[in-house]
Design goal:
This protein is of the alpha/beta class and 231 residues long. It contains eight helices and eight strands. β7 (176-180), α6 (188-193) and β8 form a beta-alpha-beta unit.
């Protein structure tokens, strides 16, 4: 069975205690920190930038998975690399030259990935597979947390998994398949069976009851793990 990765999204965290939230959720068993960057231009919301990434970098050894929902992307990529990002993904619609943007991420020392909105065709990855470390499928329309999972994403995941598996057979190199939006304990197994190996969960994790216990995310992370273990 593949090793599954759980990446709580800071979009749903308590920003008044962001450092504690990062430490607590990693301490409760999460693998990555998903870092949503929105510019109120490519998507209708405004969130956080490189300074916040730089601030949380010393707080965890976990990978920081930066998802750029900004247009254009090339100007900001080096800033996030310097701020401590490990993975940087972007939407192909936000780049004038997808190959060049992927190369810039890798040259900056980070893993690179493309993000596909619900209606964005997967064919856009076909000629840049050699530069992809991760493919992220949006299972909601980007911009806001707390949305419901779009069922058609399951079919799209199967198609993406087939592309990735065929590429691995040819090249010997693997590409991670991540999904973002509406992921919860009651649907994560079905999403994994469709081909995903990395799961962004925002409101499902950070929406859990908060208290003074630093392990208050244990139960939700454990529930996600248990659902995956039952496959």
């Amino acid at each position: 069975m593949p090793r599954y990765r759980i990446a709580p999204s800071l979009l749903s965290a308590n920003f008044a205690r962001l450092g504690e939230e990062v430490a607590d959720v990693i301490g409760s068993g999460a693998d990555w920190i998903h870092f949503d960057v929105m510019d109120n231009h490519y998507v209708p919301n405004l969130t956080i930038g490189p300074l916040v990434c730089e601030a949380i970098r010393p707080l965890t050894q976990a990978a920081i998975d930066v998802h750029l929902m900004v247009k254009p992307v090339d100007r900001i990529i080096p800033d996030f690399a310097r701020a401590g990002a490990n993975i940087i993904t972007f939407h192909p619609e936000a780049s004038e030259h997808v190959d060049r943007s992927l190369s810039l991420i890798r040259e900056s020392g980070c893993q690179a990935g493309l993000v596909f909105n619900p209606a964005t065709p997967l064919a856009l990855m076909d000629h840049v597979m050699d530069k992809l470390d991760i493919v992220l499928l949006m299972s909601v329309n980007p911009g806001f947390g707390g949305q419901k999972f779009i069922p058609e994403t399951l079919h799209k995941l199967r198609l993406a998994r087939a592309r990735i598996d065929a590429y691995r057979e040819k090249s010997g190199r693997d590409i991670l398949l991540e999904v973002d939006g509406g992921v919860k304990a009651d649907n994560i197994a079905e999403i994994a069976l469709a081909g995903a190996d990395t799961f962004v969960a925002g409101s499902a994790v950070f929406g859990a009851a908060r208290d003074d216990d630093p392990h208050h995310y244990d139960s939700i992370i454990s529930a996600l793990r248990a659902a995956l273990a039952g496959i």
